[in-house]
Amino acid sequence: MLFANSALAVAVATAAAVSHVAAACQAINSVMTIVLENQDTSTILADSYMGSTLVKKGYLLNNFYGVTHPSQPNYIAMISGSRNLCLLDFDCKIGANSIVDLLEQKGKTWKSYQESYPGNCFTGTSSGTYRRKHNPFMSFDNIRGNPTRCANIVNSDQLSRDAAAGKLPNYIFYTPDMNNDGHDTSASYASNWLKTFLEPKLVDPAYANVLFHVVFDESETYFGPNHIYSILLGKGIKGVGLVDNAHYDHYSFLATLEGIFDLGNLGKHDKDAVRIPLSC
What we know:
CATH architecture of the domain at 6-18 and 27-83 and 159-272: 3-Layer(aba) Sandwich
Number of helices: 11
Shape: globular
Structural class: alpha/beta
Largest sheet: 8 strands, mixed
Low-confidence stretches: 1-22
Distance between the termini: 28 Å
Strand content: 15-25%
Radius of gyration: 17 Å
CATH topology of the domain at 6-18 and 27-83 and 159-272: Alkaline Phosphatase, subunit A
Order of helices and strands: HEHHEEHHEEEHHEHEHEEEEEHH
Number of strands: 13
Strand order of the largest sheet: 7-4-8-1-9-11-2-12
CATH superfamily of the domain at 6-18 and 27-83 and 159-272: Alkaline Phosphatase, subunit A
Mean pLDDT: 93
């Protein structure tokens, strides 16, 4: 059913292949990345909500891949264009730049919304159902050691207040807790959480100019291609119900984010990554 319009899928893939250079996308005010955990694409496409309902509403990136295993290096790659020698799930301390540096240089705002996060620049490995390994911003020395920047890492409760005040940042990184992201539960649990979290936002005027990216960090199967579910919804997508079969990974979305806000690049894997085509 996903490939009923194969000609359109091919056309989209062809467009993606030539989308390396893209101008700033002024129609998109905010980009929200929502990261779920550790599921194979086949499992998610079999889910009634993510595999059917969302596919009909969004732009499915059907050939999207994590860059490694385990979880944390994928999160680091999402915001910095490299694993930066962070290879495992132990606390990392990285003396490099990230998307934060590019955003701030352009006067753009950002926040990392973390479920169950204790606040106050908590640097511990865990607290309840919060895990630092799923909060990549905390691994960067120039964020963790900077009180002003670290204040942009907040508990997820702040999101509703920011939306109500009309103060959604330009870049939103949202991490569900260890239950809601499916890590300690299941794909169906994560799907039910996502439906409750996302559906109201798709019709809320406060989020009218937001591009949503729902993505998994890595596949459940370690010894394989690391094929993961990834879908764009909301402002700026090429079309509703489209399937893009071009090859993308976490670096591709970082490069796309850089293009949306005309940020330049970090000179790492993001520099040469193929951007995802948008309609701006």
